[in-house]
Each structure stands twice: as structure tokens, then as C-alpha cells.
Automatic annotation (TrEMBL):
Species this protein is from: Alsobacter sp. KACC 23698
Residue stretches making up the GtrA/DPMS transmembrane domain: 16-131
Transmembrane parts of this sequence: 14-35, 41-61, 81-103, 109-131
Gene Ontology, cellular component aspect: plasma membrane
Topology relative to the membrane: Multi-pass membrane protein
Record keywords: Membrane, Transmembrane, Transmembrane helix
Primary localization: membrane
UniProt-annotated location(s): Membrane
PANTHER family (alphabetical): PROPHAGE BACTOPRENOL-LINKED GLUCOSE TRANSLOCASE HOMOLOG
UniProt xrefs under InterPro entries: GtrA_CellWall_Glycosyl (IPR051401), GtrA_DPMS_TM (IPR007267)
Protein known as: GtrA family protein
UniProt similarity note: Belongs to the GtrA family.
Pfam assignment, any one: GtrA_DPMS_TM
């Protein structure tokens, strides 16, 4: 018998999630380049701006493209998406610190080493906690309606 976690990973939804993630990684690199090289912001400031903006975009894209749900984003979903992403970021920084600072790995090698486990963590967190949790009918969507609709 296959566990719920294994069933979630072994379907097309995970591949769509990975595709959105790959696109977001490329966009993150472009945003960081623009903020640091063009606008000459400090790299940590640039990382914070990119994390906030791109995590919000990732929530919208993953809900619609990876999980094939309606495009109405609820505040509770956005909060859960940021919670999962924030936990992932904290553990990512911890593991990077251990692998680079403690074991002396090159940062790119360390980053590649943790990509798959963190991708799986993020997918399972969003599949079960972010978009798998039930929302109350009273929960308001962004702009009081569907994304992209004008008021």
C-alpha cells in the first residue's frame, strides 16, 4: 500500500509544481540581477524583496497551474503558502550554513544537494497544508473577487 505522501509525489501534479518552481527560480535570478546589478540594492535587501514578491506570485501560479484549482486566492491560503515557504527558507538557510560553513562545500554544490529534498518538502507542504486545508466560506479573496477581475 502506498502512503498518501508517496501518492502525492507520484502524480503529474508534482511535475507541474516542479515546472512552476523551475520558472520561479529563473525569475528569481532575473529579479535579483536587476535589483542588485541595475538598481544597486544590497543583496540581502534584494533577496527580501524577491522572496516576498515571488512567493506571492508563486502562490497564484501553483494554485492555478500545479494544483489546478480555481484562481481565487483566499487570505488563509496565502498565509499558509507564506508559512510553508518561510519554514522552507529557514531550514534552507540552516542547511546551507552547515554544508558550506561546516563542511566546506561550495555554495552551488550545497544548493544543488538540498534542492530535491526541499522541493519535496515544499510540494507536500503546499499539497497538504496550503491547498489541502479547508477554507471557511467567510474567508475573503484578494480584491473581494477573482484574480484579474476589475471591480
Amino acid at each position: 500500500m502506498i502512503s498518501k505522501a508517496a501518492r502525492l509525489i507520484l502524480n503529474a501534479q508534482f511535475l507541474r509544481f516542479a515546472g512552476v518552481g523551475a520558472g520561479m527560480a529563473g525569475l528569481n535570478a532575473a529579479v535579483l540581477f536587476a535589483l542588485v546589478s541595475v538598481l544597486q540594492l544590497h543583496y540581502l535587501t534584494a533577496c527580501a524583496i524577491a522572496f516576498i514578491a515571488l512567493t506571492a506570485l508563486s502562490a497564484v501560479l501553483n494554485k492555478r497551474l500545479a494544483f489546478l484549482l480555481d484562481d481565487r486566492i483566499r487570505w488563509s491560503e496565502l498565509a499558509r503558502f507564506f508559512a510553508v515557504s518561510g519554514v522552507s527558507l529557514a531550514f534552507n538557510l540552516l542547511f546551507m550554513s552547515v554544508l558550506v560553513g561546516g563542511f566546506g562545500l561550495h555554495p552551488l554544490i550545497a544548493s544543488l544537494a538540498i534542492t530535491l529534498p526541499f522541493g519535496l518538502f515544499n510540494y507536500l507542504g503546499h499539497a497538504v497544508f496550503t491547498f489541502g486545508a479547508s477554507d471557511h466560506l467567510s474567508d475573503r479573496a484578494w480584491d473581494g473577487g477573482r484574480i484579474g477581475e476589475s471591480r
